[in-house]
């Protein structure tokens, strides 16, 4: 039996107060952001999941209280509902990087934009948390629950405290009221399933210099390719304990540079002068860059063996489109050098995702699978896989 489109996926995000994710959000055009994320959300599952955003942008007491509200809601979801998918701000950033735009966004993100962000990562509901300290010292604690499908406000809770110290009691009250709203939405039922993350990283960091008779050549290569796999069984679906659907984000960035510096002496003849030997220098430079990325959904399979081994496997990854740019500049070592340059832009695709992992079950903690695998070296290409999976089993008796 296949399960899906149910319950909760909680994303407790530290957006604001100078976080990298907040800076990334502000690198978007408001119009482009809405268009890109709306398209992404329309193409994905509308499972009932939750994305919590802390909108408070200060490091003072207001920020601390806002963190407390977001934490209380996240912890409440975990305690009250056994089926919860979790993600970090880095996971969210990886997913949204696939729709990155180069334009700048000025001002705060609107309620509709934040709803679109939640929808793009598969979240049906978004909780917006904000805390404000008024000039008279009073602290206002606010939390809104949005439906990303309709961009409507389901619940809005706000309380005012005499000061920041007293605001923690109000923060807990606001969090409890939001959780009561969730209690009217979700039903406490689910089946055992795997959740967690898998990350694959491929790096190349190479630089070498060769001295020849009349020239010096320098070559460098830098590659960063990442695959982030986020299991979202309650949003995307799963099949018992053997497999779960996962959202995959691939990002590819490659730069290769070749520089040749020449220094020699050649015979030259200028008008009105006899031929003479002249020391000349020249340079040739070629830079190739390739960037791209994309998102998709794949099935992650988990298999166990009698000897205590387990495997985690995923296949069927689609190639991601990349943009290639090759730029050359030359200033030849000649008597009368004529500089030249060219730029060539093409499109290509890359498919570097590969997940075939193996480990041994910890008898003391068989419901948690973690590990790290490293292959190769930085000169030719080093690949690293890390994984952390957890079996959510609401039917298991607690000790």
Write the layout of secondary structure elements.
Layout: E1 8-13, H1 20-25, H2 30-42, E2 50-54, H3 61-80, E3 84-87, H4 89-97, H5 111-120, E4 125-133, E5 139-147, E6 152-161, H6 167-185, E7 193-211, E8 215-231, H7 233-236, E9 238-239, E10 243-268, E11 276-304, E12 309-314, E13 320-331, E14 340-350, E15 355-360, E16 368-377, E17 381-392
Parallel strand pairs: 1-2, 1-3, 2-4
Antiparallel strand pairs: 4-5, 5-6, 7-8, 7-17, 8-10, 9-10, 10-11, 11-12, 11-13, 12-15, 13-14, 16-17
Helix pairs in contact: 2-5, 3-6
Number of strands: 17
| Residue share in helix | 10-25%
Measured distance between first and last alpha carbons = 29 Å
Structural class: alpha+beta
Shape: elongated
Summarize the biggest pleated sheet: 11 strands, antiparallel
- Would you identify the regions where 5 or more consecutive residues have pLDDT less than 50? 1-47, 98-108
Rg from C-alpha positions? 27 Å
Secondary structure tally, helices: 7
Mean pLDDT: 78
Number of domains: 2
How large is the share of residues in beta strands?
over 45%
Give the ordered list of helices and strands. Answer: EHHEHEHHEEEHEEHEEEEEEEEE
